[in-house]
């Protein structure tokens, strides 16, 4: 049964919260500016509570069950970090308060900048980008400014491997630059011959996802980076998959010029149904002056045991990417997470993320072909069409829901037909992985014996398979019900 | 480690299944010299210790629970009903990903559909996306969208001088990658004629903020008509609380309305995460950035919701997408959804009325102080909840006295934007400020400027 919308639940005259009486004299409203109806629904408080509780029961999160969504790092988000981000000193401080009234916030941001720089191997970090894609755009604008300052304005090509996330080419277009796609080779690495051919004085940068979206670490990474640097281009690291590497290696030491971190992946902040996230950007020495500001710097001259901090904008900064300082509430959660884990804990995360992914690959590869079947990092890609069947990755995904699992990412990366991209993360136990593999096994059997069972899946969810074509053809983007069923006196 | 469940025996069994003997063998593809660095991070601590450490750090800050606050300038201290956080703490919602698998995500999808519906009604618009990062980035996307709709034939963007200065700088950063110019109407705020004079056949969009950075309403209808006569679009930045009581830019002719949704049930949180609101006309929906939720039906004919028009987005269209946005602000949009449902039609109107009357009481009270001017930039323009006070002393100095002697967080020192405004302060008054606090502010200002 469908849950009614807030407009269907609305009855004129109701209100969900009482507000204080006016304790000052009324002032006349300006002529002609007031509106008769603001268009909102009218619900009592219990109606609101029951409605959203019902909606939560029609949703699946990491707290509900296994969520092996590739490249999204759906790991457990420690509950304590939710408590911490809600402390009034953090949640109830205003971004324009004089900095000396919020020393705790500046210290926290400074420490997080330092820790991320240390983990990634970069000279400096700006916390400002609000998400990974915004980190990419920031980086592209910085690299553009870097080359422009050197008079190299002819550099407008950005080299992007064909396995890259869609945000890479989309960010490139937003930065006013051109995409040149580089194919992958038979082992899932960048095709170095194609890369070599592309490297000339029109290259602004290479965008390199590390490990790549096949879950593979570039086997000849030093050569790849040298090729691009050799033609005067820069190398940008997409850190979306850093959960394989934190504590295991520092990507900056490879010679990357920039890299964004996804705090909502590697550093365990909740995905929130799609956001908010945070995409801090690390920069090498030669690019740090272009970072967006303000960032937090230590005030010179303060005593070592009583450091003082201030906001400062780097000399050649490209400007602001968002208001204020970025998603501070996300910083609090990741700061606490890194503090609790330390270097050894971060390394343990990567160990177990990679262990879990390889374990699942080995368990599934007999049933679901793995096109690049070698040691993978935190995720791997198999084909969601068991040998001898003609079901699709989508059918397998939908059927997994009936077994109580969230499906893997499907149809990505684009270079693998019927792709299922599986990222278990380190926080899942062996029983869960075994149960998932068993479910995938049952589904593979069904694919041959009763494929209709898959094509009509899911069967056990709050709604059956939804008609996405109808949604796009007959656009209904707002509720046709207005909640104005009763006329007020 | 509490967040990693593996026992030694399980680890050994799993390694054996893979055919390896040690965990380090998992990383042989990484260049040998770079493997396993010693990171200079503090030693790990427990949850109990991190709570103690972080609490001590938080308590080193002054916060709005313990100090009367008159600071606004884009981030406001509004009441958040308890229903909001109750919903935000549901693990099924906040630990979910983008609802690409709709059958497991009906809760988030329906909430986003309700968000779109309520935001459209509130702004007077026809289409709202499912959220953007913040108000300034929503504006930057709207500007890029206007340039896109002009298909390269119009490359000029006019920004009102009374636009929030940080919004201006974010738009300028985003335009670094676009072939476009920004025209400025100088630094005389509120002058509709100056903006009209800049409109021409090269203009893709005129950007207004209403109430503007100084808290005053703009002549949206007049400027929308002028923009349309020149073939340009009008983009309005709104305060969502003012829309509870005052006319919606969408009903006044705006082609896009954007806003920062922080006032709708989201704590200030030192500036983020907030919520970007981005709306447009239905005719422009295919040029809109970000996710959209649409209603549809399932295989059994039941109503359900899905992400729709994905062909605008980066994961399908790549370099031809309308934007690069992926992660958005879904959870703060959920907060706004619960906030708007809780407040409802009467509640939001009431919040706006309280802000209006209290801020006018504050302006009237402060106006009686010697040597003070209210809204010197445009004294006759109506305002909503924020106004400018010109003082006899630098605002920074006055603020120091307000805080040190009265424990009050004063208004925004406009000298931080332009040195010739150093004696002006932007004061925000919301439903959270009591009459007693306002009287105390006036007394403190009298003392501080004496």
Describe this structure in words.
The complex is a heterodimer of chains A (489) and B (450). Chain A folds into two domains: 82-339, Aspartate Aminotransferase, domain 2 (3-Layer(aba) Sandwich), CATH 3.40.640.10; 347-473, Aspartate Aminotransferase, domain 1. Chain A is 34% helix and 10% strand. Chain A has helices at 6-9, 45-56, 79-85, 88-91, 103-120, 132-149, 167-174, 192-198, 221-230, 328-364, 393-402, 430-449, 451-455, 468-473; strands spanning 124-126, 157-161, 178-182, 203-209, 234-239, 258-261, 281-283, 295-298, 309-312, 380-383, 409-410, 419-422. In chain A, strands 1-7-6-5-4-2-3 form a seven-stranded mixed sheet, with helices on both faces. The longest helix of chain A has 37 residues, at 328-364. Chain B has 450 residues and is an alpha/beta fold. Chain B has helices at residues 8-18, 47-59, 82-88, 91-94, 106-123, 135-149, 165-174, 192-198, 220-229, 314-317, 330-367, 395-406, 435-449, and strands spanning 127-128, 156-159, 181-184, 203-210, 233-238, 256-260, 276-280, 293-297, 303-307, 373-374, 386-390, 412-413, 424-428. In chain B, the strands form three sheets. Chain B has a seven-stranded mixed sheet with strand order 1-7-6-5-4-2-3, with helices on both faces. A four-stranded antiparallel sheet of chain B has the order 10-11-13-12, with helices on one face. In chain B, helix 3 runs antiparallel to helix 11 (330-367). The interface between A and B is large, with 204 and 204 residues.
Which tags fit this structure?
heterodimer, A: 489 residues, alpha/beta, Aspartate Aminotransferase, domain 2, Aspartate Aminotransferase, domain 1, 2 domains, 7-stranded mixed beta sheet, 3-stranded antiparallel beta sheet, 14 helices, B: 450 residues, 4-stranded antiparallel beta sheet, 36% helix
């Amino acid at each position: 049964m469908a849950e009614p919308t807030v407009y269907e639940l609305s009855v004129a005259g109701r209100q969900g919260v009482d507000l204080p009486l006016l304790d000052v004299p009324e002032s006349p409203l300006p002529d002609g500016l007031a509106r008769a109806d603001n268009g909102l629904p009218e619900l009592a408080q219990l109606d609101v509570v029951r409605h959203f509780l019902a909606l939560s029961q029609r949703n699946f999160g990491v707290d509900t069950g296994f969520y092996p969504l590739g490249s999204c790092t759906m790991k457990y988000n420690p509950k304590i970090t939710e408590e911490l981000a809600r402390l009034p000193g953090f949640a109830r401080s205003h971004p324009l308060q004089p900095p000396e009234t919020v020393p705790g916030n500046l210290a926290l941001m400074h420490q997080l900048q330092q820790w991320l720089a240390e983990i990634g191997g970069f000279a400096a970090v700006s916390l400002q980008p609000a998400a990974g894609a915004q980190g990419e755009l920031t980086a592209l604008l910085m690299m553009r400014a870097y080359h422009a300052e050197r008079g190299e304005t002819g550099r407008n090509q950005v080299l992007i491997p064909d396995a890259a996330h869609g945000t890479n080419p989309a960010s490139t277009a937003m930065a006013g630059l051109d995409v040149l796609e580089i194919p992958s080779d038979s082992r899932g690495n960048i095709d170095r011959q194609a890369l070599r051919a592309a490297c000339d004085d029109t290259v602004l940068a290479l965008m390199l996802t590390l490990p790549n979206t096949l879950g593979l670490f570039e086997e000849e990474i030093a050569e790849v980076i040298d090729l691009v640097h050799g033609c005067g281009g820069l190398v940008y690291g997409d850190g979306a998959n850093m959960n394989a590497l934190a504590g295991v290696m520092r990507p900056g030491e490879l010679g990357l010029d920039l890299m964004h971190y996804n705090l909502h992946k590697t550093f365990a902040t909740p995905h929130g149904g799609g956001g908010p996230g945070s995409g801090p950007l690390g920069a090498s020495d030669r690019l740090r002056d272009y970072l967006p500001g303000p960032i937090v710097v230590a005030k010179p001259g303060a005593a070592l045991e009583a450091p003082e901090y201030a906001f400062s904008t780097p000399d050649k900064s490209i400007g602001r990417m968002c208001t204020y300082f970025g998603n501070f509430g996300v910083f609090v959660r990741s700061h606490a997470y890194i503090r609790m884990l330390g270097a050894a804990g971060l390394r343990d995360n990567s160990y177990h993320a990679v262990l879990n992914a390889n374990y699942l690959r080995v368990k599934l590869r007999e049933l679901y072909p793995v096109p690049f079947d070698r040691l993978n990092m935190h995720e791997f890609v198999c084909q969601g069409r068991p040998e001898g069947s003609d079901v699709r990755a989508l059918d397998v995904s939908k059927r997994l829901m009936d077994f109580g699992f969230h499906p893997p990412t499907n149809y990505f990366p684009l270079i693998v037909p019927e792709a299922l991209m599986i990222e278990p993360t380190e926080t899942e136990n062996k029983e869960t992985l075994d149960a998932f593999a068993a479910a995938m096994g049952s589904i593979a059997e069904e694919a041959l014996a009763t494929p209709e069972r898959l094509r009509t899946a899911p069967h056990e969810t709050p709604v059956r398979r939804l008609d996405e074509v109808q949604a796009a053809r007959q656009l209904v983007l707002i509720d046709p019900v207005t909640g104005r069923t009763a006329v007020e006196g | 480690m509490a967040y990693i469940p593996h026992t030694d025996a399980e680890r050994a069994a799993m390694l054996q299944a893979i055919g390896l003997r040690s965990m380090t063998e998992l990383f042989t593809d990484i260049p040998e010299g770079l493997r396993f660095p010693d990171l200079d991070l503090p030693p790990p601590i427990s949850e109990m210790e991190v709570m103690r450490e972080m609490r001590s750090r938080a308590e080193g800050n002054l916060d709005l629970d313990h100090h009367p606050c008159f600071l606004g300038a884009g981030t406001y201290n509004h009441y958040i009903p308890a229903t909001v956080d109750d919903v935000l703490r549901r693990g099924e919602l906040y630990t979910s990903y983008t609802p690409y698998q709709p059958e497991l995500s009906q809760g988030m999808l329906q909430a986003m559909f309700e968000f779109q519906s309520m935001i459209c009604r509130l702004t007077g618009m026809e289409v709202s996306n499912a959220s953007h990062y913040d108000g300034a980035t929503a504006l930057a996307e709207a500007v890029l969208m206007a340039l896109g709709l002009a298909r390269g034939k119009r490359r000029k963007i006019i920004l009102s001088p009374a636009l929030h200065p940080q919004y201006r700088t974010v738009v300028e950063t985003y335009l670094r990658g676009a072939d476009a110019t920004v025209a400025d109407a100088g630094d005389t705020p509120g002058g509709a004629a100056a903006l009209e004079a800049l409109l021409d056949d090269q203009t893709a969009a005129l950007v207004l903020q209403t109430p503007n950075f100084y808290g005053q309403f703009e002549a949206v209808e007049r400027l929308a008509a002028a923009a349309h006569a020149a073939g340009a679009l009008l983009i309005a930045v709104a305060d969502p609380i003012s829309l509870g009581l005052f006319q919606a830019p969408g009903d006044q002719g705006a082609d896009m309305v954007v806003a920062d949704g922080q006032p709708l049930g989201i704590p200030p949180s030192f500036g983020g995460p907030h919520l970007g609101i981005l709306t447009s006309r239905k005719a422009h929906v295919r040029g809109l950035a970000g996710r959209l939720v649409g209603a549809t039906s399932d295989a059994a004919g039941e109503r359900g919701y899905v992400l729709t028009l994905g062909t605008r987005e980066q994961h399908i269209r790549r370099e031809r997408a309308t934007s690069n946005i992926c992660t958005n602000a879904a959870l703060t949009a959920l907060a706004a959804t619960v906030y708007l449902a809780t407040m409802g039609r009467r509640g939001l109107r009431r919040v706006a009325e309280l802000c209006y009357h209290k801020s006018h009481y504050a302006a009237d009270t402060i106006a009686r102080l010697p040597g003070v001017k209210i809204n010197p930039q445009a004294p006759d323009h109506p305002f909503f909840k924020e106004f400018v006070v010109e003082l006899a002393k630098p605002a920074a100095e006055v603020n120091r006295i307000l805080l040190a002697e009265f424990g009050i967080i004063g208004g925004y020192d406009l000298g931080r934007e332009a040195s010739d405004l150093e004696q002006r302060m932007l004061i925000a008054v919301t439903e959270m400020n009591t009459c007693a606090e306002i009287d105390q502010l006036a007394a403190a200002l009298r003392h501080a400027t004496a």
